Amino acid sequence: MKVLVTGGAGYIGSHMLRALQSQNHEAVCFDNLSTGHRDLVDCDSFIEGDLADKSLLSDIFANNNFDAVIHFAGSSQVGESIKKPDKYYRNNITNTQNLLDAMIQSNVKKIVFSSTAAIFGNPQYIPINEDHSCNPINPYGKSKLMIEHMLADYDKAYDLKFVALRYFNAAGADSSGLIGERHIPETHLIPLVLQAASGRKKEITIFGNDYNTNDGTCVRDYIHVSDLCDAHILSLDWLEKGGSSKRYNLGNGNGFSVNDVIRIAEKITGNSIAVIKSSRRPGDPEILVADSKLIKQDLGWKPKYENLDGIIADAWNWEILDNKRCL
């Protein structure tokens, strides 16, 4: 298949490009490089552009015979979304509609969408399955849920088939160490912890230690980025075979607290990590753990990384190599 990957210069997108090519798909990267990195892109073709540019989108679809789209592009920081909701509704909802309209205009009717566990809000039960009610508590989650509604409506009206993958916490890096997680500024826990371990940062801040969890810190379900990419490949295959639109939760089904992450990181790296305790951040749910039985049942997905040690080990390998590149 010839696949357009929006946001392909980002963390998950860059791994997706490699995964597509390893399966002999033709991958075309589309990214405005506002948060992505050109040096992480390895694909058949790179197009620098923004989803806000309707004319550019029309030209790209007119000049390429795409079979499908994998859509990562968008804003994804919970805290920022609370401070700048306009940015999230514009970048995520409006720009996604521009993409979908360009797809329909060119009769491209298969898309795999990067959704999020943030659509659920505070969980009513754990683990969270696809039947869980959706009550997002921040603009980021609200924008992603709105896109899922939009996709369903485009399916009914235009026969646009989609798979929405609700990630829990993507982590880790390609086992080669050539690409990994690089956000500026970095906001995700595992790379921040590893930056403290490598000396790139002085310490790690824990936001809230009074949650109703085993050790008082937030609990999250971490999934290796390579396992996420496998789920996208399976989703593409499903759509290519004429499958109906689907929504799937993606996680390992195991919850690890912030303190667990720090402890395992110290074990993997052999370095002590300085910690500062701070108050809770608005918009952070207490516990998020996935029930991923449905995608395993329907598509045969099975994560290769079922424990946090392997995820952190690959992320640490990337941290060491990327730190050297940045010096």
Describe the global form: globular
Uncertain spans, ≥5 residues at pLDDT below 50?
Answer: none
**Largest sheet strand order:** 3-2-1-4-5-6-11
Oligomeric status: single chain
Find the structural class using helix and strand composition: alpha/beta
Give the topology string: H per helix, E per strand: EHEEHEHHEHEEHEEEHEEHEEHH
CATH superfamily of the largest domain: NAD(P)-binding Rossmann-like Domain
Whole-angstrom Rg:
19 Å
- Number of alpha- plus pi-helical segments: 10
Number of strands: 14
The CATH topology annotation of the largest domain reads as: Rossmann fold
| Count of domain modules | 2
Classified by CATH, the class of the largest domain is Alpha Beta
Task: Please outline the major beta sheet.
Answer: 7 strands, parallel
**CATH architectural type of the largest domain:** 3-Layer(aba) Sandwich
Classify the beta-strand content into a percent band.
15-25%
